[in-house]
Design a protein that fits this description.
The chain contains 4 helices and 27 strands. It is mostly beta strands and about 450 residues long. The strands form 6 sheets. The chain has a 7-stranded antiparallel β-sheet, with no helix packed on it. It has a 4-stranded mixed β-sheet with strand order 1-2-3-4. Helix 2 packs across helix 3. The longest helix has 20 residues.
Amino acid sequence: MACVALFCSLWVGLAPAQAPAVPSAGAVARPAPTGSLAVWVDAVATSLEARLVAEGARGPVAVAITAGRGLDGDKVRRVLGPRLKKRLAQGGITNVDERSGLTVRLVVSVDAGKLWAVGLIEGDDLVAPTSFAVDASLDRELQTVFGAGATARGRSRWQLEGLGVLPAGVLDVVCLDVDGDFADEIVVLSLEGVTVYRYTAGVGAPEKVGSTVALPAQPAGWPRVVTGWLAPSDKDKEVVLATTAGHHLAVDLVGHTVRPHQEGRVPLKGLGPLGTSVTWLRGGYASPLLALPARGADGRKLTLPRMPDRVRDLWRTKRGVVFVAENGQLFLADDDGVAPLLSQSRIGDRVLLVDLDLDGRLEVATTAATGEGEADTLTLTRPFSSPGNEGPLFRSGLSGGSVVAMGVGDVDYDERPDLLIVEETDSDEALLWRLEYAP
C-alpha cells in the first residue's frame, strides 16, 4: 500500500491490525464499542495510546488527518476527527490539543478491500518519529460512512451520498421537522414501529431521537406481502400510517401516543399542493394495491381525471395525476385521457416526484430493476419535458440491494430538497442514501 510505504523508513514499531492492549496506568474503563465505525475508531485510538505509552510520551497531541487512496479528505476529517477526539478524551492516556508540539499525522485510505489508518507521531518527548497502522475490513457500514466506492453515476451536479445505516425492516420514510429547528428529521416506519432519526453532517450515521413507537400486534400477524405507507398528518408533529398487517394509525411523534385512524384506508403523501396534504385510498390489508375513490383528510371525495380503479401509487401535478398502474407501469392521467409516462415496462410499486434542482420542473424518481433478478436501480428523469423520450438525468445501482422506501425533505439546513432512498440488503441493516442537486 502506497501510504504505508511512505512511512517505512521512519517506523520504530508497527502496531498490529488488531488494537493492542494499553497499559492500565491512567486508563479509564469504557463500554465496549458497537458498530464497525466505532470499533475501528477505538482501534485507531488504542494503537495511538499504545505507541505513546511505549515511547514514554506524555501530554496532549495535535492530530492532522488526511485522506489517501479512494476517499474524500473533507468527509474523512468530518467523520473521524470528532470521534477520535472524544475517544481519546475518554481513554485517560492523552487528549487532543491542536497547540501541542506532539503531532499525530493520520493518513486514512482504502486498499485491497480494507480501510487503513496509518499514523506518524513526531515532536516533543520523542527521540525519533514513531508510527502505527490499523486496518479493518471494508464492510457496508464503513463503505457508506466514508463514501468508499459510492460514486455517482449520471450527469454532473447530481450527487449521491451514503448517510449511514438503519435497522433492517424499513417499510416507508417521510421527512418532517419534529423539533422546530427548520431542518427535517427522518421518520421511519419499520416492522418494529415508528422511529425518528436526525441527520448531522459529519456524524456518519443517522442519530436516533427518542425511542421507537411500537406497532400494536395484529391478530393475524404479517401477511406474505409486507408493505407499509407513511405520511405527514394534517396535525403538527404527527404521522399517519397503514400496513398490510392491518394497522391504520396516527402517531404523535412528541408524545409517543398511538390512536386508530381511518380504518380501511391508506395515506398517500404524493397528493396536495406540496405533497404534504394527506389523501386516502381504500386498501392496505395483505395487498399493495389501492382502490379509488381518493378522499381528503376531511373525508370528501377528490375530483381526479378518469383513471383505473386500482393503483399502486399516485401523485397529483399541474399536468394531471401520475400513477403506478396495477402492472407496475407509470402513467399520466389528464383531461385528454391516460398515456404511458415512461417507456420502460415497470418502475416498481412506488414513485416520487420532486423539483430537486428548483428550476420549476418536476423530476420523477423510480427504482425498478433493469432486468429479471437484477438489483434495483435508482433513476431520475424529467418526462414532462418530452414524454416517451426521457433520457435519465441520473442513474445508479446503489450497492446492489432492493430499494424499499423514498422520501423528500431538507435534512441539512441548505434549503434544497434532499431525496432520501432506503436500500435493504441481505444483512440486518438497511442503507440510507441521499441524492441532491449540487450546483
